[in-house]
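User: Could you walk me through two proteins back to back? I'd like the raw sequence and the C-alpha cells for each, with a short line separating them so I can tell where one ends and the next begins.

Assistant: Of course. Protein one, sequence then structure:
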Amino acid sequence: MKLNLFVSTFLLFTFSGIAQINPQFNPVPASYNVNSPNPVYAWDINYDNIDLNKQVFHLFLPDTTGNFPLVVFIHGGGYIGGTPDIVTTPVRRQDIKYFLENGIAFASVGYRLINNTGPDTEGVIKCLNDAKRALQFIRYNASDLYIDPTKIALQGRSAGASSSYWLGTLPDMADPNATDPILQESTRVCAVDLYGSQATLDMYKWETQVFDNFDGNGTNYTLDEMENLMGFERTSNFYGGFNSISQILVDPALIQYRQDVDQLFHLSNDDPPMYISSQSLAVHPSQDLVHHSFHGREIHNTALAVGVSEVKADIPALSINTTNGESGIEFLVRHLNSCSNTLTVPDIQVSENYIDIFPNPIVNQFTIKSKSTIYKIDILDVNGRILQTINNIENYHTMDISAMSNGLYFIRASDRLNNILEVQKIIKL
C-alpha cells in the first residue's frame, strides 16, 4: 500500500555530505507578462552530475519569500528529443504566468535521452529515473528553492506525460537505506496532469490492451507492426537493447523491465488525482502510434476501475469529456490549494537499547545516557536535515537546544562506522 504523500523515511538517513545549492534568481522576463510583485527564475539547476547538460531544471517562483506549492513539468519528445527550454514557448509562458499569479512555483525538468544514433544499453528507465531524482532533489533542497515539499504536482506532455504518470503510479520510491540522502526523499505527489501520455510503457500491452480489437473487427495492432513503424533500433533501444522483438516476451530481465515501466500495472486507488487529455484524432494506430486516443481511454478506464480518487478526461475522438470545463492547469491549482497530504512521521519502533533521553519533552537542555558503542549523536529536523552533531559521546552528555524553535525533532545515534543504532523522537517546548 502506498502512503498518502510524503511519508518520511528520513529517520534512517545516512547523509553523504551533498553541498548546499545556491540558485541564482533573476527577475522573470517581461515577455512572460506575470502580474505578481516579484516573480523570479533560476536557469539550469543541476540535480545530478552524470550529464550536466541534460540533468537540469529551470525554476520559476512567485517570489523569494515563503515556501510555495510547485508544479513539476516534464517535457516531451519521444524520449529521444526535447529540452526543458520549452518554457520559452508562448504556451508554456502562458501556463507559467497562470501558476505564478496563483502563488504556485513551476519547474521545467530535463533528463537524459535514449540514444537515437546508435545502441542504448539503458533505455527508457534512464529517463524515468532522472525525472524521479529531479523530484527527490527538489524535495531535499526545498528550503533553498522556496518550495513547500508537501505540495507538489506533476505535469507533462507526450513522453513527459508518461514520466509524470509513471511517477504518479509507482509506489513511493523513497529508499531509506540509500547512502545518497536525495534518494531517501518521497516521490508521492498531490495530482498529475497528463497531455498525450502513453497508456503504458510496456509495448506488449499496446498490442494486447490498448489496440486490442482497435477496428471493432477483432484486429490487433501487433508488436511486429509497431517495430516496422518505429524501426528496429529505436524499438530495441527503448528497453536497453534486444536481438528481436519476441525477446521481450521470454527474457526474464526484459519481462521485469516491462513491468517496471508499466503504469497500468502500478495504478491503484491511492494514486493521486489525474487529469487526462488525449487530443489525437487518428483512426488507425499507425497514424499516431504513441498519442492515439486509445491510450487516453485505457488510462481513463483503468484509473476509474481501480478507484483513483478523481479522474478527469478530455478525449474528443471518443466523445469522452468529464472535465466540466476545467483545464489541466486549473485542476492542478485546485488540488495544490486543497491538498490534504501533509508531512507525516511514521510510528517508530524504538529499541531503547542504546540511549535514554531525559527530560522529554524538553525546554532548553536535555541529557543523553548512552552505551559505550555510541560514537555520534545527530539532532535532525522534520525534513531530515542535521541541526547539530556531537562526536565522541560519553556515557552522559548534556545538549542545549534553547536556540531551536518549539516542535518535533529526532535524535539519531550512530557508531564509529556510521551505522545507525537508534532513532528517538524529542519534543521541544
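----
Protein two, same layout:
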Amino acid sequence: MEYSNILNDYAAAMSAEQVAQVVAEAKAAATKNENAEVYKFCLSAVDLTTLTCNDSVESVTEFAQRTVTFAQKYPDIPNVASICVYPSFVETVGLAIDGTPMRITSVGGGFPSSQTFLEVKMLEVAMAVENGADEVDIVLNVGKMLTGAYDEAAAEVEMIRSEMDSDVVLKVILETGALKTPELIRRASLLSMAAGADFIKTSTGKIDVAATPEAAVVMCQAIKDFYAKTGRKVGFKAAGGVKTPQDAALYYTIVEQILGAEWLTTDLFRIGASSAANNLLSGILGTAVSHF
C-alpha cells in the first residue's frame, strides 16, 4: 500500500508558533485539573513501566506484586492500567498479577531503536503476544521517516500489526524528540494510524528529548483529523519525562481541549511512567507516599 498518498488527504501541520499558542492555552487551563479527582484518573491511565538493563525475574516480580498490594492497601483509589516490561518478562508479570484486571504491556519490535530486521521485529511481537501480552508498544522506524521513506515506515507497522490478534492493543511510539518538527510529527501520526495503530505514543524515554506538550498537541490534532475522516478513534499516550502530577494534568488538559471528554478514558488515554505513579498517589493523598 502506498501510505504516503494518504498524507495528501490531510492539511499540513500547524506552525510552531500556532502549536506554542495552543500549548500556552492548555497550560493556563491545566490549573483547574490539578486536583485529586484528575490525579486519580491519571493514575488509572498509567502504564507502570520498568525497562532497564537491571531487570530480572526477581525484580520484575516484585515490581508487579506491588501493584497487586496497592489494590489491597488503597481500595478507594483506582490502580494503574497496565505493567509495561520487556518481552522476556511478559510471562513473569502474568504470573504476578494473575486474577487482577490489570493488563500486560510489552515493548517490542526492536525497542527502543527499531533498528533490526523486520522479521525479527515481527517474531518478537508474536512471541510477546503468545506469552500473554495484552498490549504492545513498538517504535516507528525513525530513520525511514527522516529520509522520507514513509511507505516503508508505515508498511513495517502494518506487518507487525498482522502478527497480533485484533483484541491486542498496538501502540506506536513516534519518538517525537527525534522527528522534531510539527510537520514530521503529524506525518508520523497519520501514517501510524493508517497502518493500524490503536494508540500513538510520544516517545521511548530513551533519548534526550522525550514527551513534550508541543508534540502532544500535534499528535492529538492528527488523531482528531483522522477520526473525522475515518470514524476510527485512536488513543494518545504520553511517555518519557512525565514525572509530576502537574505534568499528567497538562497532558490530560491537552487531550480534553483538542479531543474532548470522550477521549478521557483508559481505552484512549495512557501515561507511560515510573516515578509519576508515586507522585500522583502523593498528590491524591496530599502527603508524600512511595508505594510503586
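The chain has one domain: 3-285.

Let me know if you want the two compared in more detail.
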